[in-house]
Amino acid sequence: MAELQVLIGAWHASPTFALLAGLGIVVGVAYTLRVIQKAFFSEQEIPSDGLATHHEFDPISIPERLGAVLLLGTSLAIGLYPRLLLDLIVPSLNSTLFDGLRQTGCL
Asked: pTM higher than 0.85 for the full model?
């Protein structure tokens, strides 16, 4: 539902970007459903001896470690000091778009 509201707002600003965002949402949903289907509803091959097989995983690579560290660091920074994002968000609430909300006391 939130995506629909964002797309409606984006349509008023730029129909081209709204169409691209809608296409991105559809592709994301398709991939998500495909992964869920493979993870939970696909047939698992059972070895002839009936024993579960042990899967070996490759060690985590440097780019994967870097991505994890960046994600963890950003999450910690925003969690401990949310003002980093709030200083960017709050000025947009001062626009005339939110005058009605300020009059009702919701903002």
From this structure: no
Q: Are 43 and 28 in contact (CB under 8 A)?
A: no
Per-residue pLDDT tens digits of the chain, which is 107 residues long: 788 888 998 888 889 999 999 999 999 999 999 999 988 888 766 666 656 566 677 888 999 999 999 999 999 999 999 999 998 888 887 878 788 777 887 66
Closest alpha carbon to 23 in 7, 40, 36, 39 = 7
